[in-house]
Amino acid sequence: MTGQTIVCFSSIDWSESWQVHQEIMSALARAGNRVVFVESTGVRRPALRDLARLRTRLRNWRRAPSGPDPQANLHVVSPVVLPCPYLAPAVWLNSLILGRTLRRRLQALGGPRPIAWIYLPTPLVLRLVRAIDPLLTVYHCADDFASSSPQAAPIEASESEILRAADLVLATSALLADRARRHNANVHLLPAGVAFDRFERARTDGRPPPADLAALPRPIVGFVGGVNHRVDDALVADTARRLPACSFVFVGPVAGPMPSLERCANVYLLGPRAHEEVPYYIKGFDAGIIPYRVTTYTNHIYPVKLNEYLAMGKPVVSTNLAEVRRFVEEHPGSASVASSPDEFAAALERAVRPADGSVATRAVEIARANSWASRMARLEALVDATLAAKAGPA
Predict the structure, then answer these.
(1) Closest by alpha carbon to 267, among 222, 226, 318?
(2) Domains in the chain, ordered, with CATH?
C-alpha cells in the first residue's frame, strides 16, 4: 500500500500520548503514502480542564503553513471550530470552513482520490468525508465514545451512519467489533500492536534506566500512559499502602489533581516523557500495571501498554478488563487479572518477586507475535482487498 492519499480524522491531537492513531499514520506515511492528519474536533463541549489543549490548538493553528510541506508525507491540520459537536448550525459552519481547507490541501498534494480514515465518528466528520469524495472509507473503531461521557452520548447516531457507509471497519477490541457488525459486514478485529524492534533494542542495548527512575527504591511498579479518569486512583492508593516497600511510578500526562495518589509517599507522578524514552522507563520497572476502572467504556479498550510491558519482559497485573481477559485466554500466563483490591495487591506482590529468565523470555515472545509489523501487514492486506472488491472485475 503506497502512493495513496489518506485523510485521517483523528480523535486525538498529534502531540498527545502515542496511540494507535499516530502509530498507523506514521507507518503509512513511511510507506510512501501522503497522510493528512486532522486533529480532533471534539465529541463534547469543552470544559475548564481543556484550556491548556485549546491554547495549544490555537498556537498550532496560527503557526500552520499555508500549504503542505513537500518534503514530508505527513501533514498535521489543527482545526479551530465552534465547540458544539451536535448543534446543526455549528456543524454546518464548521464543515463549510474545514471542508474548504481540506479540499485545498488535497488539491495541493495532488494524487488520486483520497482514502478517508475515520477515528472520530461525529456529525462534522460525516459531512467532511462527503465533502472530500473519498475513493475508500475506513472506520477504525478504537473507542466506545457514547459511553465515555454523558455529553458524548449523541455521537451514537452519526457513528451508526458512518458504520453503515464505511467500506471497511477495523476494531481494536472484540466488543467494538461485535457492535460494529450490527451495521456492517466487512468488520475485522485488529488490536493495537507494539513497535517490537524499537522495544527490543531498548531491552538489549545495555543503557540503564533514566536517572529519575533509577533513584527510586525498588521494587518499582510502573504505569505508562495518561493518568486520567480511566485510572482507579483509589485502587492504586490502597495497593500502595499495602505494599509500602514498592515504588509506584506513573509516566505520562496527569489530567488533573490526584489527591489520593499525591498523599501516598511511595507514589511518584513523573509526568509525560518523550515517546522514544518510554521503553527505557519500562525497562526500569519490576512489574507493569493496568489499574483501570472497570466500566462499559474501559471494557471496550485494548490497552496498548499491555504488549509494551511484555516486550520489555515484564510481568503484568491488570484489573478485570474484558480485552485483557481475552488476551490472557489467547496467551495463557501473559498477565494476572484481578477482580478485587485484595487480588490486585496479592498478584502484584507475586509479580515483583525475582523470577527465572523463562518468564521474561515468554513475555517477549508473546509481544513479538503482536508486533505492529504483523498488524500493519494485515491492515494493508485488508485495505488492498477492499479496494479490489470495490473496483470490481477488470
Answers:
(1) 222
(2) 5-193+372-391 (3.40.50.2000), 196-369 (3.40.50.2000)
**What is the Cα–Cα distance from 349 to 212, expressed in whole angstroms?**
23
pLDDT in tens, 15-69: 887 889 999 999 999 999 999 999 988 764 555 454 555 555 445 545 554 444 4
- How far apart are alpha carbons 291 and 307 in whole angstroms? 15
Cis peptide before 114 (omega within 30 of 0): no
Task: Say if residue 93's pLDDT is above 80.
Answer: yes
Give the pTM: 0.84
> CA-based angle 68:73:76, to the nearest 5?
55
Residues 6+ apart with CB under 8 A from 18: 275, 278
| Distances, alpha carbon 237 to alpha carbons 74, 250, 259, 264, 365, in Å | 41, 12, 10, 7, 32
According to DSSP, the residues that pair with 77 across neighbouring strands are 38
Which DSSP string do the residues of 3-22 spell out, in sequence order?
S-EEEEE-SS-TTSSP-HHH
The strands making up 168-171's β-sheet, listed across from edge to edge, are 74-77, 34-38, 5-9, 115-118, 136-141, 168-171, 187-189
- The long-range contacts involving 323-331, CB below 8 angstroms and separated by at least 24 positions, are 323/173, 323/174, 323/175, 323/191, 323/299, 324/290, 326/174, 327/302, 331/366, 331/369
Mean pLDDT of 154-164: 91
Write phi, then psi, for 5 (nearest 5 degrees). -110, 125
Residue 71's pLDDT is 46
C-alpha closest to that of 250 among 175, 334, 207, 232: 232
* Number of neighbouring beta carbons within 10 Å of residue 239: 27
Of 79-93, 145-159, 205-219, which one has max mean pLDDT? 205-219
For residue 252, the model assigns a pLDDT of 92
